[in-house]
Design the sequence.
C-alpha cells in the first residue's frame, strides 16, 4: 500500500471518528438559548396598562441579563428607519438570530405628542421583540399600551356622491317625513334635490 493511500485512509478515519465534535450551524446559540429558557421564570411585575398588565423593560432586563451572561448570550436592538431589528448573539461562536418588526406610523395616543408616541412605540416593540426572540412571557395580554384614537390626517378624504330623486320618490319621502319616520336633515344629507323639490321641502 502506497504512502498516499495510507494518508487518505488516515484522514477518512479521523473524520469518521470525530463527527460529533463539529457543531452544526447555529447549534451553539440554540443550545444556550434552550438552557436560558429552562432557567428564566415568567416575568410579570404587574405594571398596569389599558385593561392589561405587563412587565416593563427594566424589570425584564433585571431578570434576563444575569442569565444571558451565564449562558454566553447577548442582544442588541437597532432602529433602522421605521423598523426595529433585534439581534440575539452567542458570545463565543458569534452565532446570531435576528428578528425585525415595522413600527406603525401615524398612530395617536391620548395626551401624547408625536415624539412621545414614537418613544412609547419603540419601548413597546423593544419589550415584545425581546420577549419573543428569547421565548419568555412578560405580560398577561397582547394589547398595546395606550388608548388609540383616530388620526384625521391619515384618514382618506372620501367624498360620497349624493343621489337624486324622481318626483314620485320625493313625494313618498315627504309623506314619510310627515309620518315622523324620516327627517328633512336625513333627506338633504343623502340626496341632491332639485330647486322645485327644495322649495316643496321647505313648505312641508
Sequence:
Amino acid at each position: 500500500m502506497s504512502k498516499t493511500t495510507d494518508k487518505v485512509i488516515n484522514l477518512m478515519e479521523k473524520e469518521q471518528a470525530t463527527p460529533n465534535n463539529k457543531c452544526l450551524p447555529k447549534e451553539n446559540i440554540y443550545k444556550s438559548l434552550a438552557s436560558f429558557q429552562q432557567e428564566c421564570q415568567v416575568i410579570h411585575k404587574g405594571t398596569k396598562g389599558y385593561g392589561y398588565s405587563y412587565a416593563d423593560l427594566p424589570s425584564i432586563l433585571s431578570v434576563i441579563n444575569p442569565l444571558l451572561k451565564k449562558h454566553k448570550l447577548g442582544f442588541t436592538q437597532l432602529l433602522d428607519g421605521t423598523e426595529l431589528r433585534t439581534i440575539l448573539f452567542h458570545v463565543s461562536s458569534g452565532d446570531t438570530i435576528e428578528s425585525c418588526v415595522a413600527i406603525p406610523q401615524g398612530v395617536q395616543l391620548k395626551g401624547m405628542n408625536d415624539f412621545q408616541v414614537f418613544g412609547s412605540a419603540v419601548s413597546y416593540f423593544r419589550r415584545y421583540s425581546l420577549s419573543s426572540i428569547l421565548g419568555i412571557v412578560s405580560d398577561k395580554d397582547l394589547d398595546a399600551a395606550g388608548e388609540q384614537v383616530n388620526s384625521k390626517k391619515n384618514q382618506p378624504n372620501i367624498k360620497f356622491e349624493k343621489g337624486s330623486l324622481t318626483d314620485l320618490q320625493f313625494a313618498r319621502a315627504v309623506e314619510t317625513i310627515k309620518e315622523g319616520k324620516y327627517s328633512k336633515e336625513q333627506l338633504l344629507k343623502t340626496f341632491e334635490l332639485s330647486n322645485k323639490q327644495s322649495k316643496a321641502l321647505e313648505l312641508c
Q: What stands out?
A: The chain has two domains: 26-153, 167-203. Residues 4 and 10 are 10 Å apart (CA to CA). Residues 48-52, 142-149, 151-160 have pLDDT under 50 and may be disordered.
